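Hey, I was hoping to borrow your eyes for a little while. No rush at all, and the record is pasted right below.
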Amino acid sequence: MEYRRLGSSGMYVSEISYGNWITHGSQVEEDAAIKCVKTALDEGITTFDTADVYAGTRAESVLGKALKGVRRESYELFTKVYGGTGPGKNDRGLSRKHIMESVHNSLKRLNTDHIDLYQFHRFDFESPLEESLQAFEDLVRQGKVNYVGFSEWDSNQINQALSIQKQRGWTRFVSSQPQYSMLWRVIDREIVPLSEREGIGQIVWSPIAQGVLTGKYLPGKKPPTGSRTTDEKSGAGMISRWMRDDVLTAVQDLKPIANSVGLSMSQLALAWALQNSNVSSVIMGATKPAQVKENVKAAGVKLEPEVMQAIDAILGGLPETDPAKTVSPNPRS
């Protein structure tokens, strides 16, 4: 495993992070999830990412159990706040009330007294931004949170927050958690340059494009039984945008490139994202330990410029690059 600093902070994170968005508490049984976490630790992964809304809060609980007994100083624990965790109008969003109640519930579920990185899961158009930032600042001062970040914010939203943090002398963002892969590059034009200037590192999710970049989905063929495309709990709606013959054909054409550099398709996808120097870590999920062992081999891989160019030539105009695709929904709508 290789490690990188998270933005301009002094904290290091593993190049490969372990995330449990659609696995723990929903897709796999608890025992299997715990085995995956133990394997991740054995393979040198020190960074674990979750959120209070994953699997209806169950994902945090499973991760807390899996990390029980592990020396707290030996890993970095990330979670998020924003989405609905209950039926009430105040059970969602970035109001001070919801943030303060959510962080305490997350701490209990995660079986810890502090969170290394607490993130705004999306942008809240209803709660005053200064109110949300003040709550995060208070959590840092209380020692419950070490660093703060956000997920899926556009450049205007980031600049608004940075301006308030600077004016108030508050703890500044050190991380952004966007979707990023060979097929989804919407952060390249605006978010990455802004982040490089402001000392913000990317912790990217879905670097394998919900599994499409593994090459297991074939053009003109029915998806494998039990795959993500057929399971609504596993993100079937999100992966559907890539289930087109032009995309699937191009992905198959990447296989010779992966073979030429001695990587599996998954490893190539992860390594591609890590070539971006603004990326601090890529998040992988797993339903079995073997997947963890395979994916960690992408750490430390350097892809030569001609390899990156060959990938771009094959994918052509298929990747999404429009910054306007970064959108936060209204959590109360």
Notes: The beta strands are 3-5, 12-14, 16-19, 47-49, 76-81, 115-120, 145-150, 175-176, 201-204, 279-284. Residues 96-110 form the longest helix (15 residues).
